[in-house]
Amino acid sequence: MGREIEMKIALTQEEFLSVYKAIYGEEKYSEIQFGKVQLLFKQDKNYSRYKTHKERKASGEPKVIRLRKEEIIELEKPVDFTNQNMSKVSEIFKSFCSPENKNQSFFTIKYKTRQDGIEFNREDETFVEKQEVIEEMLEIAGYECWFTKEKCAWSSHCTSSILDNTDFHLELEAVNNLLYLEVEVTESDKNPDAIKNGIIEFIKTLKINPEHKDSRSWVEILSV
């Protein structure tokens, strides 16, 4: 079990490209050391026994009951977005998906709270060898898949002088062609306020305004 604190921000095309250049070292930030960039295609299936948010909340059901299929994409060089239609980032990304890529699945139960637009998550997650077995078990138990999300992410684990001995997990992503930046810290022994402030400063360093944080859930965002 881990405690996650994260922030997500909708990006303009210019902001997306700026962060993209940063994670590949084309733009330098002395306060941030970017780790290896990994391309991840994530397909999330969210399950519930209930039909509405109101019913789920009243029941005390966990905020997230999720099966995730994750595909790791290896590229020899970064994608060149020069003269590309940035409204089609997801399609460009998924063109690199292949059955030959490494695939893995995870089952997750997550409880979420929000404070000032920052998510605080308590999460249990386990590796799943055969996703179809868990799908069958959930169906037998009366759960239905009520929401599916596809995320194309450039992922990097970063260190920073902003907060010592802390792993900042950055994901630059397209979710249904919506451009976002997510920064997450999973810690159990640091002060939550210190982590929250560290994430804010981390995002500021990337020249992104943290006041533009999106406090909505992905369900709310993608339902608009």
Description:
By secondary structure, this protein is α+β, with helices and mostly antiparallel strands. Helix content is 24%, strand content 41%. The protein is built from six helices and nine strands. It has helices at 13-23, 53-59, 89-94, 131-140, 192-205, 218-223, and strands at residues 2-10, 32-34, 38-48, 64-73, 102-115, 118-128, 144-160, 168-175, 178-186. An eight-stranded antiparallel barrel has the order 1-6-5-4-3-7-8-9. The protein is globular and about 50 Å long. The relative contact order is 0.26. The model has no long low-confidence stretch (mean pLDDT 90).
Defining traits:
9 strands, single chain, eight-stranded antiparallel β-barrel, 224 residues, globular, 24% helix, 6 helices, alpha+beta
What portion of residues belong to β-strands? 35-45%
Helical proportion, percent range: 10-25%
Low-confidence stretches: none
Q: Report mean pLDDT, rounded to a whole number.
A: 90
Question: What is the overall shape?
Answer: globular
> From the alpha-carbon coordinates, what is the Rg to the nearest angstrom?
18 Å
| SS summary, helix count | 6
Structural class: alpha+beta
Describe the largest sheet.
8 strands, antiparallel, barrel
The helix-strand sequence is EHEEHEHEEHEEEHH
**Strand order in the largest sheet:** 1-6-5-4-3-7-8-9
Distance between the termini: 32 Å
Oligomeric category: single chain
Beta strands, count: 9
